[in-house]
Amino acid sequence: MKCIIVDDEPLAREAIENQVANIPELTLVGTFSSALSAQRFLEQTQVDLAFLDIQMPGLTGIEFAHSIPAQTLIIFTTAYSEYAIDSYEVDAVDFIVKPIETERFKKAVNKAISYHKLLTQDEKQNVESGTGNFIFIKSERRFCKVRFDDILFVEGLKDYVVLQLTNQKIITRMNLKNITPLLPANIFLRISKSYIVNTSHIDAFDNNDVYIGQHEIAIGESFRDEFFNEYLLKNNLFGQMPKKE
User: Fold this and answer.
1) Are the beta carbons of 50 and 73 closer than 8 angstroms?
2) Domains of the chain by range and CATH?
3) Is 86 left (phi over 0), alpha (psi -120 to 50) or beta?
4) Would you say 77 and 53 are in contact if contact means Cβ atoms under 8 Å apart?
5) 102-123 vs 10-21: helix axis angle to the nearest 10?
6) Entry pTM
7) What is the model's pLDDT at position 127?
């Protein structure tokens, strides 16, 4: 499991690093002195587990936890036991009070490893294997069941994604990079930096745009060839790619 450590105290970071080094299942990919720097890292890198302090200057651990992708598990590490109740708000795997004892640390990590295996199995069964037809998306503190067939397209807006369904929108704190592996590749195609479309809902297209209902979505220059190659081949239209204007 890829993990990161976020703590404003150098000695605390070092102590957790030493604990992580003794657990073969963990690979440390980053340590950060602030939540803001960790947030920037997570925008570019997928992480399985975050060891997160709570009381930090600027952005607190609890505030930061609300922006962490749903696939990233959280273990809070803090000197203040009174924050334990707050940790349940963001579905933390565990809450460890400093100074951290080795056995207590291992117990928390083993719980995270078990959760990670369950999440991985669920993704393989419901998404990667193509046997599932829905996904659960966390939005406004609840998990919403979303059927793939109901998704028209997915729009990325910085730290959020908007799932445009046939009858509503669902907004969740995630980015396109993290949601892409959860969508069946035989149905969804990314057509720009900001959009993934459900190809079964495409009503029309030309060299520059895709039309889904009343929505007109521009095809990104760097995604154009891949889109036409995949979509035209899938629909037996290969060789009919529109000419560039």
Assistant:
1) yes
2) 2-128 (3.40.50.2300), 137-234 (2.40.50.1020)
3) alpha
4) yes
5) 70
6) 0.53
7) 35
